[in-house]
Write a structure and sequence with these properties.
The structure is a single chain. The protein folds into 2 domains: 143 residues, P-loop containing nucleotide triphosphate hydrolases (Rossmann fold, 3-Layer(aba) Sandwich); 50 residues, Wheat Germ Agglutinin (Isolectin 2), domain 1 (2-Layer Sandwich). Helix content is 19%, strand content 28%. The chain has 4 helices and 12 strands; from the N terminus they run βαβββαβαβαββββββ. A 7-stranded mixed β-sheet has the order 3-4-2-5-6-1-7. It has a 3-stranded antiparallel β-sheet with strand order 11-10-12, with no helix packed on it. The structure holds adenosine-5'-diphosphate (ADP).
Length: 201
C-alpha cells in the first residue's frame, strides 16, 4: 500500500454557516500537503469560468483552490485538460471540494469514482438550507461517506450549539417560500440553534 488511504475513501464535513467547515477542510488539506501528497481543491465559481482562487475560512486562513462552474469542469481539470492543474488523474492523492451543496447531482458519481480509484476525497458543505431542508447532493453523500463530521456554530441568539443557518431579509426571518435569489434585497445569514431558527410563516 502506498499510503493508509491507498484504498481511497470519502470524508464529508457538514454543519451550518460559520461552523468551521472551511477551517476543517483547510486543516485536513494542509496536513496532506505537509505529508507531500498531491492535492487538488475545488469550489463552485459564481460565474461560468474556472480560475485560480482560494478556499478561505471566516477566521482568515486560506488555501489555493480552483473555482469551477460545474462538475464537468472538475473532471476536465483532474484529467489534465485545464491549465490550472496539470496532474494526471492517477497523480492526485487528495481531492478537496468546498461548498459541495452548490454542485448538482453529478457530484455524487464523480466523487464515488474518485474514491474507487484510490483518491481520498474530502467534501465540505451545508447539510441543510436556510429552511432546514436537506441541501442538494449532500444528503446522499453523507450516506455514502466512510467518514462524516457534523460541526456546530454558536447560536447568535442564545449561545447554544447552532445546527442551522438563519436567513434574514432586511433583518427579518426569510419565509419558507422566499426566492433563493432576491434582487436588491439586503440579505444576511446567522447561525442558530433549533429553538431560535425561524422560517417565518
Ligand atoms: P463555515 O465554512 O462552516 O462557514 P468557516 O470555517 O468559514 O465556517 O468559519 C468559522 C469561523 O467563523 C469560526 O472559527 C469563527 O471565527 C467565526 N464565526 C463567526 N460567527 C460565528 C458563530 N456564530 N459561531 C461560530 N463561529 C463563528
Amino acid at each position: 500500500l502506498k499510503s493508509p488511504y491507498a484504498g481511497g475513501h470519502l470524508e464529508v464535513i457538514v454543519g451550518p454557516m460559520f461552523s468551521g467547515k472551511s477551517e476543517e477542510l483547510i486543516r485536513r488539506v494542509t496536513r496532506a500537503v505537509i505529508a507531500r501528497q498531491r492535492v487538488a481543491v475545488f469550489k463552485p465559481a459564481l460565474d461560468d469560468r474556472y480560475h485560480a482562487t482560494q478556499v478561505a475560512s471566516h477566521a482568515g486562513r486560506s488555501i489555493e483552490a480552483v473555482a469551477v462552474p460545474d462538475v464537468q469542469a472538475i473532471r476536465a481539470q483532474l484529467s489534465g485538460e485545464g491549465q490550472l492543474l496539470s496532474a494526471e488523474p492517477e497523480g492526485v492523492d487528495v481531492v478537496g471540494i468546498d461548498e459541495a451543496q452548490f454542485f448538482g447531482p453529478q457530484l455524487i458519481p464523480l466523487v464515488l469514482e474518485l474514491a474507487e480509484r484510490g483518491v481520498r476525497v474530502i467534501l465540505a458543505g451545508l447539510d441543510m438550507d436556510f429552511r432546514a431542508e436537506p441541501f442538494g447532493p449532500v444528503p446522499e453523500l453523507l450516506a455514502r461517506a466512510e467518514s462524516v463530521e457534523k460541526l456546530t456554530a454558536i447560536c447568535t441568539v442564545c449561545g447554544a450549539p447552532a445546527t442551522r443557518s438563519q436567513r434574514l431579509i432586511a433583518g427579518q426571518p426569510a419565509r419558507f417560500d422566499d426566492p433563493v435569489v432576491l434582487v436588491g434585497a439586503q440579505e444576511s445569514y446567522e447561525a442558530r440553534c433549533r429553538i431560535h431558527h425561524d422560517i417565518g410563516v
